[in-house]
Amino acid sequence: MNKKTPLPNGLLRYDSLEDAIIGIGERCGQPRVLIYSQSGIIDILMKRDKMTMEEAIDYFYYNIHGGWLGEKTPILLMDITDGEEDEDEGD
Fold it and tell me: Per the domain annotation, does 64 fall within a domain?
């Protein structure tokens, strides 16, 4: 999201990862939630905390991806690139 775009109050945020926010998600009958880019979070961890790619990925999956914080838990968007196949493809 544009850094100048104010975010609505009441959305659950991950501390110091604002630059990885890419949007706001809506689901029928559910509260709005922030959407973070997984690769953006990993990039921040590598640059800010001087982690290797492996360390950042391990940290991400253990400390962020693995945490349920209730119905306002942010969505973690996995970027799709041209070389990746859909895991459900062929079902």
Answer: yes
Domains in the chain, number: 1
In a domain, 88, yes or no: no
pLDDT of residue 79: 86
Q: What is the CB neighbour count within 10 angstroms for residue 76?
A: 18
pLDDT of residue 8: 83
Average of per-residue pLDDT across 18-37: 95
Q: Strands, E, within the chain: which ranges?
A: 21-25, 33-37, 75-77
Q: What is the pTM of this model?
A: 0.81
Q: CA 31 to CA 89: how far, in whole Å?
A: 30
Residue 5 lies in a domain: no
79 sits in which H/E element: none
Six-digit token pair at 31? 């509260």
The token pair that represents 67 in the structure block = 């945490």
Instruction: Give long-range contacts, CB 8 A cutoff, 24+ apart: 44-50.
Output: 44/16, 44/17, 44/19, 44/20, 48/16
